[in-house]
Amino acid sequence: MNPVLTIASLTVREAVRRRLVAAFAVLSVVLVGASGWAFYKLSHGGAFTSGETNLALPQAVVLFMFMFSFVVALSASAIGSLAVSSEIDSGVLQTVVARPVRRSEVLLGKWLGLAGLLGAYTAIVSGLQVAVVYWTSGFVAPDPAAAAALVFAEGVVLLTFVLLLSTRLSALAGGVVGIALFGLAWLAGVGGTLATAFNIHALHTASEVSQYLLPTNGLWQGAIYYLEPSSFVTQQLAASPVGQGDPFLALTAPPWQYLVWAGIWLALVLTLGLVSFERREL
Amino acid sequence: MPGQRASDPGGVQPPESPAIHTIELSKRYRAVVALAGLSMTVARGEVFGFLGPNGAGKTTAVKLLLGLSRPTGGEAMVLGAPAGDIETRRQIGYLPELFRFQSWLTAREVLILHCRLMRMTRQGWAAAAEDALHVVGLEGRGDDKVGTFSKGMQQRLGLGVALLGEPALVVLDEPTSALDPVGRHHVRVIIRELRDRGTTVFLNTHLLEEAEHVCDRVTIISKGRSVATGTLAELKVRRPSARLRVTGLPGGWWRRLGSFGRWTEETPDGEWLLVEEMSAGRVPELVSAIVALGGRVEAVIPEHQSLEESFLKLLGET
Questions:
Q1: Do B117 and A96 touch (CB under 8 A)?
Q2: Are B263 and B273 in contact (CB under 8 A)?
Q3: How many inter-chain contacts (A to B, CB under 8 Å) are there?
Q4: B47-51 and B200-205: which strand pairing?
Q5: Exposed site from A32, A87, A187, A211, fewest CB < 10 Å?
């Protein structure tokens, strides 16, 4: 078997054996179950008119997806930061890279295994969420598959970045830096939507630049777009004079150029990680 | 045979490359010199001891030989290829000094993982793992998680991993540091068996007793540089010395026999004397000379230099 696939399968097996998968499965079932109860109450509780319910449901879907995207991002940062540096510290990697394998194959295998785990988690949770929301409220987002794909892409972007950090920094430092920059990118995105609403040009430019430097929030904004019906967006804009400043509202689909940039960014950072690990003294 | 070169059309076989050959191999970490120009040659099929005190640069040298670290100077060839060559690693088994296997895998799974990384054929994995477990005395523990193993058992497993695939070169970095006396004896037996099979063993250790038991040749390194290389007998060679107890002669009599070696009075009464740096085989001659002077030779204790004494002397610690 190709060493990349050997390491990838080892990474997945570790997640299963260390009960990471079991913990996530239980957590997801609890959260999706809770969301089912919330959606049922929202649509059948009698507290809202049908018009209010139609406005509340997409917002609730976005909020739950935001929570799952946050879980994906946190998980990506945690597992990515441990992947290399902690194994170097413990001496596990020294036994592996002394074999006839390239270090790049080892890192690529880890990336593939961890990205596979994130992909499986995102797909399963998104699928469950769509089913539960439909079953309890009858609401279906315009394109939940595209939204899930973008949340997954957001997770892979952060995972790749933290893996790069893990080739040089300790697990703690890499994880903290990854999460901090993820939060900063999100805040910059929020700042950007406010800047658009209030015509603050400099803040808008700074926000735009940040979305290219770490494209996590840009991808998340794309995911929002595919979760909200256009009628909902129109109503939201009409309801509030600063509707464009709502960080949970996406007016346009992510431009293809931006998605291409995210792909290039991913390839560049992954390559940088491979080179960094190749050059790392063990 | 691993590493053997194909014969040329004229039927003349080029000489086989040494297992390890380094020329002025150096490693510097900023201002710290870890290895300061190590030159050595390890022949194929020998058990080569790499001795030195803590911090002498032994593990640094091993990491350079395996390509885990890059040299800042000099060069190293391993099994005829530049150190770190990916394909050559198929023929190298390595037991690191500080290591850990995946604690959530069983011992057998660790061995099979390494079979896969070595790209052995799938059919051979189970037998290779079973054989390795048997060789290192872990039969019956193959299905136990590595996380439940003691340090010594992990070291045994590490040795088993290093022996997978019958490598041409086995690099053992302090292989018995966590083992009890029985385990140490077992490792020595394994090393001798490897030599009998024609496997080169590069034994990195600071345990002189270990080197004395199994090594054909050793090199002693200090401050990142080789200070002596040779067989154990060669390193221990110091012109013989002897302790003597002589009575019946006036004080200072031994000055008349200064040509035998360097004399030292060991007791205030001058009866016990140490003669160092004697020419080989001169003890009987010396005794005869003392008797000829009228002395009584009450005791003669030949002194043999231990490897430890040589070691300390070479390191400038005596």
A1: yes
A2: yes
A3: 64
A4: parallel
A5: A187
**DSSP track, A118-151:** HHHHHHHHHHHHHHHHHHHH----S-HHHHHHHH
Identify whether the C-beta of residue B160 lies closer than 8 Å to the C-beta of residue B136.
Answer: yes
Quote the tokens at residue B224. 């990142």
- Enumerate the residues of chain A whose CB falls inside 8 A of the CB of residue B99: 91-92, 94-95
Written as six digits, the tokens of A198 are: 């209030």
A101 Cα to chain B: minimum distance (Å) = 7
pLDDT band for A252, please (50, 70, 90 cuts). Answer: confident
Helices (H), chain B: 58-66, 107-117, 125-135, 151-163, 181-196, 208-214, 232-236, 283-292, 307-314
Global ipTM:
0.83
Nearest CA in chain B to A15: B104
**Residue A68 in tokens:** 């799952």
Grouping H, G, I as helix, E, B as strand and the rest as coil, residue B176 is coil
With a CB cutoff of 8 Å and minimum separation 6, the contacts of B239 are: B261, B276, B277, B278, B279, B280
Residue A6 and residue B113 in contact, taking contact as beta carbons nearer than 8 Å: yes
Across residues B283-312, what is the average pLDDT?
82
Token pair of A136 as six digits: 């309890």
Question: Would you place residue B5 in the very low, low, confident or very high pLDDT band (cuts 50, 70, 90)?
Answer: very low
* Residue A275's pLDDT band (cuts 50, 70, 90): very high
- Write out the H or E segment, with its range, that includes residue A200: none
**Order of all β-strands in the sheet with B20-29:** B32-42, B20-29, B73-78, B81-82
Closest CA to A2 of A98, A101, A93: A101
pTM of the model: 0.82
Residue B31 CA to residue A141 CA, distance in Å, equals 61
**Given A90, A97, A282, which is nearest B100 (Cβ)?**
A90
For residues B104 and B65, is the Cβ–Cβ distance under 8 A? no
- Residue count (chain A): 282
% of residues, chain B, pLDDT over 70: 89
SS3 A73: helix
Cβ <8 Å between A100 and B70: no
Going by C-alpha positions, the residue among A175, A196, A171, A170 that lies closest to residue A250 is: A196
Nearest chain B CA: its distance from A46 CA (Å): 52
Per-residue b or e along B13-46, where b marks 16 or more CB atoms closer than 10 Å to that residue's CB: eeeebbbbbbeebbbeeeeebbbbebebbbebbb
**CA B314 remoteness from chain centre:** 15
In DSSP terms, A218 is beta-bridged to none
Residue A123: count other Cβ atoms within 10 Å of its Cβ.
15
Task: State which amino acid sits at residue A161.
Answer: F
CA distance A227 to A237: 16
